[in-house]
Amino acid sequence: MSALTTAAPGAPVVELDLAELRHDPYPAYAQLRRSTPLAWVPSVGRHLLTRYDDIVHAEKLPEVFSSREEGSLLLRTVGPNLLREDDPEHRRLRAAAEPPTRPRQVRDLWAGTFERTAHELLDRIADRGEADLIADFAEPLVAANLALVLGLRTARAEDIADWSRAMMAGNSNYADDPDIWLRAEQATRAIEDAVAEAAEAARREPDGSVISSMVHAADPVSLTEIQNNVKVVIGGGVNEPRDVFGVGAWALLRRPEVLDRVLKDPASWKRVFEETARWISPIGMYPRQLTRDYEIAGVTLPAGSRVALVIASGNRDESVFERAEEFDIDRPHRPHLAFGGGPHFCMGAWVARHEVSALAWPLVFSRLKDLRLAEGAADRLDGWVFRGLTSLHVTWHTA
User: Fold this and answer.
1) What is the per-residue pLDDT for 76?
2) pLDDT under 70: residue ranges of the chain
């Protein structure tokens, strides 16, 4: 099915500036939800679907809203992969890769090393009294954890983080910047080499990792398939937990009364995680392509139409979340969309939940006494396809 690169007949056309979306996409999303819940946006080259119920509806119809979008930025960046496949191919690849990321495996295989790594990173900064918690803690923590879970024994945390940044820039390169493509290509080649080495080692000695699981899958997975899917995991596996950590810590430090309550009730860290992921979705949208004509949000889209499911907008839908723009850990539970839905529900959700809400936040706030935001720091939120803090400068007492 060829992708259509123009608006569907009858679809409203809305001009959005990509720089403004990067700065803050939420005002534009609110306007779209109110007036044009499905709109063709020329700068993005697809129809944006922005209401919660419509997004959930589309996620439940993968046979109509296909992940196999022609010409997607993710395909260009990493090659064919499970995120851009439908069943049964998606199911085969996911069944091979997923077992090491399930809750019991996270607890039994990885949690101990996750905690040791967190302590080691905090040991390095504890006496300084100041740090950028993104660069000095969150990013190296999640990158080291990801290398462990994937089975990339020879990759450094710095490598994983650099590769992730380069590929995520490619995945959101709607401006078609050639320098961004070059960096993404360099990163993917390096990953391919590292995965080939790890796969050979896992073939000789299984280690419970994702690469080992794929190498020994009952339904065979080729080396190229392993390489491409590890690229995908490195992308989301760094930016999602890193950005939830940063945004959640930032939100609490700006709300001392909420932080005080959370510190007195450690079980509430789980609520902080879910509300953070809803409030500022680390992944803001993902593409789909229609396999047949279908009406949604009052517009009949022809087969081949390109659609973006804007989950960041769905997570701020006022018809589902009262006072949706506010950070509120006490809001009544409603399922958010930050990890996607349907067959493509995020494979790394349990890893992220554990490393951030069970380990990273509690350890940071217990070990760094009187933690507070650094005065005058230029920390800012950035991005719309992927969104998070560029930095998180903090100070604390060392005595």
Assistant:
1) 81
2) 1-2, 344
User: How far from 383 is each of 139, 238, 269, 302, 312, CA to CA, in Å?
Assistant: 17, 15, 25, 30, 11
Residue given tokens 């789909």 in the structure block:
288
Tell me what pLDDT residue 188 has.
92
Q: Can you tell me the distance from the alpha carbon of 208 to that of 97, in angstroms, rounded to the nearest whole number? A: 11
What is the signed CA dihedral for 162, 166, 168, 174, rounded to 10 degrees?
160
Q: Report which DSSP code applies to 283.
A: B
Residue 214 CA to residue 210 CA, distance in Å, equals 6
Collapsing DSSP to helix, strand or coil, 368 comes out as coil
Q: How much is the pTM?
A: 0.93
CA-based nearest residue to 229, from 385, 101, 62, 60 = 101
What's 126's DSSP letter? T
Cα 342 to Cα 85, 239, 310, 335: the distances in Å are 13, 21, 15, 13
Q: Where are the domains of the chain?
A: 74-279+335-397
Q: Which residues pair with 372 in a beta bridge?
A: 395
What SS3 state is found at 227? helix
Q: Does domain 74-279+335-397 have CATH number 1.10.630.10?
A: yes
Helical segments of 132-255, H only: 139-150, 157-171, 178-204, 210-215, 223-253
Burial of 318 (0-12, 13-18, 19+ CB in 10 A): middle
Q: What is the pLDDT of residue 112?
A: 96
| 213-256 pLDDT tens trace | 999 999 889 999 999 999 989 987 898 999 999 999 999 999 99
DSSP state for residue 324 in the 8-state scheme:
T
CA atoms of 212 and 251, how far apart (whole Å):
38
The reported pLDDT for the residue numbered 341 is 72
Instruction: State residue 344's pLDDT score.
Output: 65
Could you tell me the two tokens for 298?
């009052």
Q: Which two tokens stand for residue 24?
A: 């803050």
In whole angstroms, what is the distance from residue 338 CA to residue 284 CA? 8
- Provide the β-strand partners of residue 212: none
- pLDDT value at position 60? 92
Tokens 């949604």 map to which residue?
296
